Structures are given as structure tokens and as C-alpha cells.
């Protein structure tokens, strides 16, 4: 008498591929691994921004905006500690100031637009393998031509808009130094140092 075959197993949860067993790593990839899986597009974007901020060393902005009344004796240690702790925040702040200066300057936008058009024409011409450019009898390859174009673009940008970039960088440096001197020490919450009063 033949023995009936056992019923096929019903898979609940993670499906097992044929020929592959279920490993412990497979079990750890589910929702129980302690990492919240983003559901909406906003959550995905926020997770990407947080990962990028961590990569750049940007501290939480909530901690960054705290300031206290400056005290001359504490200014130097605060300045040194906060510049090291919040260097990512200061870099982002400086970049925002420079970009705002560029966007608010019509002359700068015209120079950048002219350079963009010149780069577009150059890129099309530089992609042509038959284009030969020689300086002093020496043929220049595509890489050298690109380097020369970048050098000329940098000189043009500095000549026409150098004052704008330098003033924006200078202003952001002053603001960052003032913030670093007024921000409570990185290892102490605001208001715990002697003489600190929150503004």
C-alpha cells in the first residue's frame, strides 16, 4: 500500500528561493531591524538629507541656532570648540550666502550665463576628434584644452565677479566667527556656563 505524499508547505513571510535556505541575514532585513522604512516620498527625502548631513558632519540645526550672551573670557575656547564641532554647518551657511549673492546679482548671472554658453560650444567642439588646436607648434589634446578652458573661465569669473565672491565669503566668515564665539560650548547645553544668559 502506497503512503500518501505529505502536503506541500505553506510559506508565510519571506519566500525562500528554490535551492536556497533561509539565512539569518534574510530575517534581519524586515521591519524588526530597528530602522524605520520610509513610506512617503517626503520621508525618503528627509532620510536622504539626514544621511547627507551626517556624511558632511552637519550637526542638527536645532542645536546650531542656540546662542548666549558673549563673555570675553570664554570667547576663545568657545570659538575653537564650536568651529570644530559645527564646521559642516558653517560650510553650508557660507555656501548659502555665496549662492544668494550670486542669485541677487544680475551682472553675475549674465557672466555665468555667458560662460555656460561658451562651455556648451566648447564641449561640442572638443568632442570632435578631428579638431586640432596647437599652441606654439604643440598639439593640445582634449584634456589639456578642457584644463585651459577651465583656467580661462576662472580668470573671467574672478575678474568680473571676484569682489562679489570675496565680500560674500568675508561676510559669512564674520558671521560664523561671531556665532562660534556666542554659541555655548559644544559639550555644555546653553545656559549652564557661568554668566550665560540665553538671548
Description:
This protein has 199 residues and is mostly helical. The protein is built from seven helices and two strands; from the N terminus they run ααααααββα. It has helices spanning 24-27, 41-56, 61-64, 72-85, 87-103, 106-127, 142-182; strands at residues 133-135, 138-140. The protein has a two-stranded antiparallel sheet. Strand 1 (133-135) and strand 2 (138-140) form a beta hairpin. Helix 4 packs antiparallel against helix 7 (142-182), helix 5 crosses helix 7 (142-182) and helix 6 (106-127) packs antiparallel against helix 7. The longest helix is centred in the last third of the chain and has 41 residues, at 142-182. It is flat. 7% of the residues are buried.
Amino acid at each position: 500500500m502506497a503512503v500518501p505524499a505529505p502536503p506541500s508547505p505553506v510559506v508565510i513571510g519571506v519566500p525562500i528561493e528554490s535551492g536556497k535556505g533561509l539565512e539569518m541575514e534574510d530575517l534581519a532585513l524586515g521591519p524588526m531591524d530597528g530602522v524605520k522604512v520610509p513610506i512617503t516620498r517626503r520621508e525618503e527625502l528627509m532620510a536622504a538629507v539626514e544621511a547627507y548631513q551626517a556624511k558632511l558632519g552637519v550637526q542638527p540645526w536645532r542645536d546650531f541656532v542656540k546662542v548666549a550672551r558673549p563673555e570675553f573670557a570664554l570667547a576663545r575656547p568657545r570659538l575653537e570648540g564650536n568651529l570644530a564641532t559645527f564646521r559642516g554647518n558653517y560650510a553650508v551657511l557660507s555656501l548659502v550666502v555665496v549662492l544668494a549673492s550670486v542669485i541677487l546679482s544680475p551682472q553675475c548671472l549674465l557672466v555665468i550665463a555667458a560662460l555656460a554658453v561658451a562651455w556648451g560650444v566648447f564641449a561640442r567642439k572638443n568632442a570632435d576628434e578631428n579638431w586640432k588646436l596647437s599652441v606654439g607648434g604643440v598639439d593640445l589634446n582634449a584634456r589639456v584644452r578642457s584644463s585651459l578652458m577651465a583656467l580661462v573661465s576662472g580668470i573671467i569669473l574672478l575678474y568680473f565677479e571676484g569682489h562679489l565672491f570675496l565680500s560674500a565669503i568675508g561676510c559669512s566668515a564674520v558671521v560664523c566667527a561671531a556665532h562660534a564665539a556666542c554659541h555655548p560650548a559644544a559639550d555644555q547645553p546653553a545656559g549652564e556656563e557661568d554668566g550665560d544668559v540665553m538671548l
